Structures are given as structure tokens and as C-alpha cells.
Request: fold
Amino acid sequence: MEPASLENLCVLYHSADFIVVNKHWDIRIDSKMWYEKQTVQSQLRHRFPELADPGTYYGFRFCHQLDFSTSGALCVALNKAAAGRAYRCFKERLVTKAYLALVRGWVDGDRMTLDFSIGKNTCEGKTHMMCIEGAEGCENPKPCQTELQVLEYGSYSGDPVTKVLLQPLTGRTHQLRVHCGAIGHPIVGDFTYSLRKDSAPYRMMLHAYLLRLPLLPEPVEVTAPDPFVTSLDPRWTPQRQLCTVEAALQSLLQPGPGEGRSPQHSGTEETKSPPVETEEQIAQCQQWLSEWGMD
Reply:
């Protein structure tokens, strides 16, 4: 996958209400800094100038966030009503997301639930980072869960790595990166959380593979092509496969008999308490509400 430019925006899905793009690695979604010309927002303005809304600060309404270093499926709402429907989907935890990653070392077992509370790191020089509960300087940790499934064992540039599918069940900043590091298997190329040591790979190996929003009347389900294949990066050498990406995805989307759907992809109505919003969700909502009234 070539580096990002204004011209090479990859559109995975486009309707009257939504666009889903395959975000490049090492590009911000948007920025208020005058010197940052290369953003997903600027790519969208270049490709779809007629769709930019002058009534919003950025011109396009991003339904969720992806880190600067993360690639993959990113959904954009094209009008206020669509943005409102998407927001309610995220707020009620009806959205299903799955990520592909290469992590350092060989992960034991084929499945696990990563259950570590995550808070802000207040240590000097690390205030841009998150950390698990109990770590020095960890402030206001909150419960977080991630499902991990091993797909393949192999090597990257000769070092042992594992290809995994990650499903975040909560939405905390840097959750997947922190959870993988907490079990001793940090994501390959994570410059920030390796404290600048893992600098040889050309990118961080984390990719938003699946995004599913059970919207009505227009459900959105998109996969962004797997970038961690030998044909695209010969430094990744698979050695033993436990499960294909397709089989893992099918298992994730279709729970077995007797298994209730997780809160993220429960499409049925039931009587329950409203989910507690994270501070990231509240901040996102406040940003949206400052631009338009919710229907």
C-alpha cells in the first residue's frame, strides 16, 4: 500500500448517507494545525468537493476515530440525519468492529479475553499515552475488554510474530495497543508504546478490518482488505495457520446457539439500562452537538 496522498483515497463504500474509506496509516483524520495539509478530511475535499458541508468545521462528519498510525475502515456521514443515526448506534454499542494486527512473539492459545482497566498516563513524558490499572501514574482507569483470536504464527523480518483478530468490546483510547502490550505481545511497529524502540517497521501493524453498523434503512457492513499478506509485505512470513480471517469473522458475526449477541451487535430491542458513555464518546457527542441539533 503506497503512502497517503491527496489523490489516492480508497473508497470502500459510498451511498447518499455514508462514505467508508480505507484510511492509510500515518495520516490524521483531521487537524486544526495549518501545517498539516495531509488528512483524510483534505482527501475527501479533494475527491468530493461537492459533498463538503460548509456548516461544519471540517466539512465532513466522521462517525468514529482511528489513530494516526492505524489503517482501515473509517465511516463518514454525509448529512445530519445520517450522523445522528450513526451516533446512536455507537452510543448504544450496536456497532461491531474487528481489527487485524501483527503482534510481537507467539501468543499462547487460540482465543482469550483481555480484561484490563485502562486510564490516562500522568507520568512525565507519557501524558499522550494510556496505561493499565496499577501502572505508575495511571489516572481514572475504567474497565475495558478486548477479544483476541490467533490467526497465524510467523515471522516479521526474522522475528517471531502472531497475526491476530482483535474485537474491542469497549471503546477506550489506544485500547488495543495497551491491551496487547499488557500481555507481553505489543503491536509490531508501535513506536509510541515501545517508547521509540520499535522503529524498524515502516508502519504500525494495526488495521481496522471490519466495520458493521446495523442502521435502518441502510445497514453498513464493510471490510477493508487485509494489508498483512506476503504479496504486499514480504517481510511478513506466515508459518502456521490456526484460523482464516474469513472463518474468524464468520464466528464473530454469527454467535453459536445459546450464545447471546454481545452488546456491540445486539440488534433486538430489550429493556435495559442505557450504557455508560466513555469520556471519548461524550466529547465526540459534544462536538457533534456544537455543529447541529440532534433529531
